[in-house]
Amino acid sequence: PEKRRSYDVSMMAICDAGASADEKDTNGVTGPTMTVDEAYRSFKSATAYFAAADLSEAGNFAEPLMRATKLVKSVDKRMAKSQAVSSVLDAADLYAALGAKRGASEAEIRQAYIQTAIGVHPKKNKHADASRAFVRATQAWSVLGDEEARHSYDASSNALSDSVDGEGGPRAAPPPPPRVQDMSMEDAFAAFKEATAAF
Fold it and tell me: How many domains does the chain have?
């Protein structure tokens, strides 16, 4: 029973992915609908035929499971790429866009940028908004990777936070955060190349 439960858990994602992508091509992998019970029976049958040295029949039962496994891996990769793009574009501030802490060192900011930029690089991530995410991540690095620009950004962010959270009488309006310069894809690629040159 314990093995069956463990198998059910691992197969559930495979079967759900197969059902949701029924007859749809995902990176060349097609996945027909398969219930957990059907998957379990196919697994047991494939195991039995393999034990009996009937490789042909074992292959017949194992093939749809292998196809479903490939499908679920493909779906997982696409979801991860989509989440990488969303984490950059939906980030509340430049630090969040890179997944970096405000107190991070310059080296840590650089590492966070490189890791983020690789995840949304349009040559590796085919999501429709990957280019936008790549540019935004690089814009964040252009500010946070520069000591003076980062200090100005932090000061503006802190002033804005104080004006919102503080108590007492009227306060002067905080200075606006430094404007992030527009950046072309060519400039973003050049900045990425420069940032990775030291690694």
Answer: 2
Contact 176/182 with Cβ under 8 angstroms? no
Question: 44, 76, 108 — which closes off a domain?
Answer: 76
| Dihedral (CA of 24, 26, 27, 29) sign | negative
List pLDDT tens digits, range 45-97: 777 777 777 777 777 767 777 776 776 677 778 899 999 999 999 999 999 99
Closest CA relative to residue 81, chosen from 45, 155, 27, 29: 27
User: Which residues, in sequence order, are CB contacts of 187 under 8 Å at separation 6+?
Assistant: 138
Determine the structural domain holding residue 95 and report its residue range: 91-196
The pTM of this model reads 0.62
Cα separation, 116 vs 145, whole angstroms: 14
User: What are the φ and ψ backbone dihedral angles of 146, each rounded to 5 degrees?
Assistant: -110, 120
